UniProtKB/TrEMBL annotation:
Broad EC category: hydrolase
The species this protein was found in: Mizuhopecten yessoensis
Protein name, per record: 3'(2'),5'-bisphosphate nucleotidase 1
The keyword Magnesium is annotated on this UniProt entry: yes
GO annotation, biological process: phosphatidylinositol phosphate biosynthetic process
SUPFAM superfamilies given in the database record: Carbohydrate phosphatase
Length: 372
């Protein structure tokens, strides 16, 4: 196995391995047919797959990294975890990559892991299996820096292909496990919630005058559509999703040059004491983030709450693709050239593909380093 002493890279490596184990658990529960559904609230479900997958992920990562804080979506309480749910392996492919300099000296107390064992539970129970993902996000000093999005049922309708895939990424390293397509020109394609929409979401979507709206379940699935080049932006202009829904997707999106914030354009903090609810909504893009922020209706913003943002990282490190500060303001270290380039982006319609996208269109699911 490749040797990598970096705490962050080891956590990401272990997270990839345990996400594959959790995905197999999720498939096994579906195959058995008894989902064990519990309704936690309106349009908020929990299944045996949620419970078993979380036990597997949290217990496994806790055994490997006992001093790191881990938060899962499901409130399961203390219990003895069966030995067959523990996964202690590492993924060598991750460990082959050099840790970014700003993450080299990270300590256990600076890390928080956010786990959504089954993102898209409603879709899981309704048979929309390609919407389902396993999310494991790694935050350092409140910043989402690494993430895993595992799609247990990817290719489930094609018996000739292997089912499932795992996408992972680390800021300043890249993202792996997918291939990017080129969006059609002169179109604006948005994605938003399939089952948790309301009037604020609808009015915000309408303000952009999109040519197409793709409504799917799961924050992880929506960000996959975004990084794969199938949509221009993911918009959810209402409170609803939580930190375990967005930490992993944000890290992977930022790893490929995109930006995920609340609807005010503020970076969300993923520290241990933050509110779990993303009360400012979610806005994710691969380019022209400022354009999308500027189009959010004022009356919608009045009904949202600005997010708590993390403290800036040292040495001028910026993880956002739009090169803004955590508060969404212009960064002082921007050059005149960068400012002029951003001004040129402020057009009536966003560009049809993100800047710097050099990935050719090809079969999705191939493992490659994809940077936008």
């Amino acid at each position: 196995m490749a040797v990598n002493s970096s705490l962050v890279m080891r956590i990401v490596s272990a997270s990839v391995a345990v996400s594959n184990r959790a995905s197999q658990i999720i498939r096994d529960v579906m195959k058995k047919g008894d989902l064990g559904i519990i309704e936690k609230g309106k349009n908020d479900f929990q299944t045996e797959a949620d419970r078993s997958a979380q036990r597997c992920i949290v217990a496994s990562l806790h055994k490997q990294f006992p001093k790191v804080s881990i938060y899962g979506e499901e409130d399961l309480g203390p219990e003895k975890i069966p030995a067959d749910l523990i996964e202690l392996g590492f993924t060598e492919e991750v460990l082959k990559h050099k840790c970014p300099k700003f993450l080299e000296d990270v300590t256990d107390d600076q890390v928080v892991i956010w786990v959504d064992p089954l993102d898209g539970t409603a879709e899981y129970t309704q048979g929309f299996l390609d919407h389902v993902t396993v999310l494991i996000g790694i935050a350092v000093k409140g910043h989402a820096v690494g993430g895993v999005i595992n799609q247990p049922f990817y290719n489930y309708q094609d018996k000739d292909k292997e089912m499932g895939r795992c996408i992972w990424g680390v800021c300043e390293v890249g993202a792996f496990g997918f291939t990017r397509e080129v969006l059609p020109e002169k179109q604006l394609i948005l994605t938003t919630s399939r089952s948790h929409s309301n009037r604020m979401v609808t009015e915000t979507i309408e303000a952009f005058e999109p040519t197409e709206v793709i409504r799917v379940g799961g924050a992880g699935h929506k960000v996959l559509l975004l990084i794969e080049g199938k949509v221009h932006a993911y918009i959810f202009a209402t409170p609803g999703c939580k930190k375990w829904d967005t930490c992993a997707p944000e890290a992977i999106l930022h790893a490929v040059g995109g930006t995920l914030t609340d609807m005010f354009g503020i970076t969300m903090s993923y520290g241990p004491k933050v509110k779990r609810l993303n009360a400012g909504g979610v806005l994710a893009t691969t380019s022209n983030h400022k354009f999308f922020v500027s189009k959010v209706p004022e009356h919608v913003l009045e009904n949202l709450e600005k997010s708590e943002s993390p403290e800036p990282l040292p040495d001028g490190v910026c993880l956002r693709g739009d090169n803004k500060s955590c508060s969404g303001e212009e960064r002082e270290e921007q050059t005149v050239q960068q400012e002029e380039e951003e001004q040129e982006q402020q057009v009536e319609e966003p560009s049809s593909s993100p800047e710097g996208n050099k990935s050719p269109s090809s079969d999705t699911g191939s493992v490659q380093d994809t940077k936008l």
